[in-house]
Design a protein that fits this description.
- The chain is mainly β.
- The protein folds into two domains: 35 residues, no CATH class; 56 residues, no CATH class.
- It contains one helix and nine strands.
- The protein has a three-stranded antiparallel sheet, with no helix packed on it. A two-stranded antiparallel sheet has the order 4-9. It has a two-stranded antiparallel ribbon with strand order 5-6.
- A hairpin with a 4-residue loop joins β5 and β6.
- The chain is elongated.
Length: 92
């Protein structure tokens, strides 16, 4: 799999939208994606209850709450572990 192009389609507000042009064994195709930047994600497990902990958040795309792993974007200069600890506090 080779990336032939990575074009920015939109930049505004908090998000960017890019389009990758990929080539796999001579077949070219595109995929649109939102670059995540420096992001973290964690599977949180409670050893007392022996259960995984997820967060429920409203997402505008599907227009409903989704069950998700705890995740977030690193602030400028923030260590990823600091980000994860902050996100765990904020989300669960």
């Amino acid at each position: 799999m080779n990336i032939e192009k990575d074009d920015n389609l939109y930049s505004g507000g908090r998000f960017k939208l890019n389009r990758l042009t990929l080539n796999n064994k001579g077949k070219t195709f595109t995929r649109d994606y939102i670059p995540s930047g420096n992001a973290v994600c964690s599977v949180v497990y409670n050893k007392v209850t022996n259960k995984y902990i997820f967060t429920k958040q409203f997402r505008p795309g599907p227009r409903k709450d989704l069950l998700e792993l705890v995740a977030g974007i690193c602030e400028v200069g923030e260590d990823p572990m600091e980000t994860m600890n902050r996100e765990i506090e904020e989300e669960i």
